[in-house]
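Folding problem:
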Amino acid sequence: MEKRYSVKRKNLIAAAVAVIVLVLAILFIRIITEEKVIQEYSDKYVAMAELPSQLDFTYFEEAEWKEKIKEINAGKNLNGKLTYGKMKKLLEQLSVQEYVTYDGKLPWSYVSRPEWNGVYEQILDLLDTEGKVSTENLMFLTKEPEASEDGETLRRLTQNGFYSVAEGIDYFHVYDMYQVYVKNNRIIGINSTYKGSLTLENVFVHSTEEEQAEILFERRKISVDMEGLKEDIADTICDIEWTDRKVSAIYKKEDKISGKVLSYNEEQIEISGYGTLPYSGPLKIYKTYGTVEELGKSKLVIGNLQADFVVAEKQVCGIILKEPASIEVIRVLLLDEEGRNYHENPVFTASADGTVTVGGKTEQVKANQPITVSDILKEDSEYVKVSLEDENGRIYFSDGNGSPISLGYRGTLEIRKYEEGYGVVNEVSLEQYLYGVVPSEMPASYEREALCVQAVCARSYAYIQLMKGDYAALGAHVDDSTSYQVYNKQEETPQTNLAVDDTVGEVIKYQGEVAEAYFFSTSCGYTGDMGLWNLPGEERYGYLQGISLLSEETAADISTEENFKAFIEDSQVAAYDSDSPYFRWQAKVSALEQTEAIREAIAERARANPKNVQILKEDGAQGTEEDLAGFGAVKELSAGERGAGGGIRTLCISFEKGTVDLFTEYNVRSVLGAAAENLKDKNGEAIEMRLLPSAYFTIEPEGQSYVLHGGGYGHGIGMSQNGANGMAEAGMNYVDILMKFYQNITIENIYNEE
């Protein structure tokens, strides 16, 4: 009996030891598991690292949730998996434990993903009152994440474009399909794998070969597996469908129309010969000449670009460009007498017979016959085009009787009806446009070589604006005001037209690109660089360096404030543009008396150009234009920093209870111009303008006021028009003059390019 009892006891002890070992092994495995970084998706659990981003929509931000979840995770880290015990603490942290229901299990049991999703959906119902979090079905198109444009986050490419991805949830592989939680275009969590079909719409398929397709999407070339599909596709827009991580179908879109883009906005595009068609989503543009690539909308050179438009269900799905834009015409928005984009009820007349087209109907119109747009456009029409049969004819704005009230316009006029009124666009050849610009920007009496300089500068500027499409929504490239180039405000002359013809096609290029040829009226003897616009050091503006326009005999040292003062107050300085009355000027600013005017001008510039107006309160804290009312009176004006050539880059204004630093020559001229009095040119003649002539001036205290001694007229960057005329008078040709004003440039012809 004794021996039998002993054996039984030993068996019980052995069993107990085995149980203890098993429990310890389980605990050890659990501890190891809790320390493990989760790197793969599973339906069986949810990683702790997934939770901070999913809860970011609640009371705390993601960084704060990381710390709180670490505390819930025994204060360790974000590794391991969510358990029921930890989920209970999480709900208590959210103060929703009384409202969220779920099937309770042992505290150390893992919460499966479906179970967590049920809880999370309840949390969203309770706390996401603004609907910040949504669910989307996404397929991932690339193997690796990439840095976002700001370089601060990682992002993934999907069939719906790029999404940034929260830390701790990037389990995605190429062609994976998931339903995900999204907030502000950021994937913050994963609901489940997706088992349906997803479609990549309106994608450009460049080629298919050996069950691989090369596509262009989001400006990237991507190779797509097409196992089992034998489609032969080249340079076509398609929809590609994926099912269960594989391409299951490709739908080619083969209906095309051809024409030129006349206008476009965020919803629709106007095509010559077809009118206006809508498009959905981002407008897709692909070029097949040279390198095959996807382009942005800025490459839609309106009026000059022949393209194929892929159409499905009466919508434009994409645009295919088979050749570069051929620069032939420019489209000019003609402003009304108040400088507004829209005319109330325009009337036109023409010096020659022509046609009026409304919709698809064209009718003849006789010379000198009034064309009243409101009478022509019916409710179902929004577009009128006036064309002349004689290329030497002109179209005029006129009064109701047909008498011209403007100069005549070459080319055609297009009038579109908008809610605000009628937009009037003059489409004209680029060279004929310059016929209207050169005499409007430079006196026709100037030297021929100077007029040629103006023509090349104007053409270069216009070419760049053609590529920008600032007025694309109104069917134009530029307007006819000083915001771009003044157009058709002075009569054409044989001299100015000859300058255009003698330089036909010529533009300024810097480092292979057409350069923005800035110009202004008159220098003070020096020009400046882009620092005057608070744009220092940009390589693309390397051709715009400050230069001297003085003769060698009168070269001056202006490197110090004292030397610049002596230079700018010398009215006898000899320079290429010193004959201009604006070469020297002076004004008075009664700063104390004009405090309110100065404050109002600062506030206006702060609203229009906030990054170049620094407002500091008395304690040094950043202020706003609303704070200016409490700054008190102006105490001091001073030039904080001068740029190349002496122009003021920073104007410092001290008040009783704050300071303001103004950057850019325009802000300086605008604010002090609002308070300037007795503005006179070098001949003592009064100048009537609210804007100071230039930012090249000194500020000298005189009692309670300041005297400004200045020189030049305009922004002072690039070519001085009066300086160019002086150089021409001195015997320089237009190429040499351009090389003088713009450094390291070439003169090339845009019509000779491949």
Q: What stands out?
A: Residues 596 and 633 are 8 Å apart (CA to CA). The chain has a mean pLDDT of 90. The chain has 14 helices and 41 strands.
